[in-house]
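INTERNAL TRANSFER SHEET
From: sequence group
To: structure group
Subject: Winged helix DNA-binding domain-containing protein

Please process the attached sequence and return the structure record in the designated field. Keep the field labels unchanged so the import script can parse them.
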Amino acid sequence: MPARPTFDDDQRRARLARRHLLARGTAADRAEQVVDALVAVHATDPATVFLAVAARLAAPGTADTERALYADGTVLRRHGMRKTLFAVPADLAPALYASTTAKAAAAERTRLLKDFAASGRDAAWTAAAEHAVLDALAAAATASPDGLTGSQLSEAVPQLRETIDYGVGTSYQTTQPVGMRLLRLLGMEGAMVRRRPVGGWTSSRHRWVPGPPVPAAPKPAERAAAQAGLAARWLASYGPATEDDLVWWTGWGLREVRTALAACAAAEVELADGSTGFVLPDDLAPEPAPSPWAALLPALDPTAMGWKHRDWYLSPEHRPELVDRSGNLGPTVWWNGRVIGGWAQRPDGEVAFELLTDPGPEARRAVTAEAAALRTVLADTRVTPRFRTPLERRLTA
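Return from structure group:
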């Protein structure tokens, strides 16, 4: 049996640099190219989408991402992997729904109906509230083409202002607004979609508009085909990667991941630590080493969050400074495919960074230049990550 191809860490870092549009000469002209290259960009924190794209544009800025999201609709916000909100290419949305979102939304609906029933609101009450929300959005379409905020919907639909008791009798018992739960579910299902926010591009107060007809629940064969397609698209950008990496990224079960890898004929390779990785069958050629490069990437950036096993680009000794208690990576400083520090924006607008290892004078000059460029992109905007890390807090203290 022939030996499996081997991908050392330098090869993986070279692929990361080029395929994630971070190496010199790889920057994109349009936001759609960036999102397509990354497959999906975390959108839980709105700033992540804009800063992740800006870091990979030949002319860094936020205007082109606004165009793609709100004018052209070529990039969409959708719940997907691990029930998380992502910005994805519009052409990926059907496969994302069939492979991942439909199952998560069905589970969310089951939980919602159970929690609402426990507070005396049966399925008929919930259905009536849903119809009232969608009717309000439809009625407002002419006068408010950009949609309605959650607050405006609550004014139009009084049921949304009611509350339920959650976790009664447990240590985490709390009160939840009906609107918070119901709007999230309708957003997951796609019955309503987020549009331009109130305020600037860092705002999370989005307006809502009616979505397209919600597709039928995918049949098992449709789900399997969509998972194979999504796995192939992810491997093209993130391979070589392990089964664990794909299980973590997608939130699928191990059996589903193995079936998807087999369906896209993924080839086994050996990684530097001796573990088994996977690439697409026509993607075994070595990647030339790029020229030296630096980058300042935002909290939750797809490159930092793209793999479960990260030792090949993130030193374990640096994690306590750069990762929060839930495992979210904060703003990171990169040099040649490795995380070497973190950055933060101070109240006066300055972009400050701290290097956790000495990368040498060339790297320090390059990082300083990237910080200055990011300061220009941010202009008068102030960005505080939703998930804060020890280093980011220290830099802004």
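Handover comment: The chain has a mean pLDDT of 95. The longest helix spans residues 93-118.
Transfer complete.
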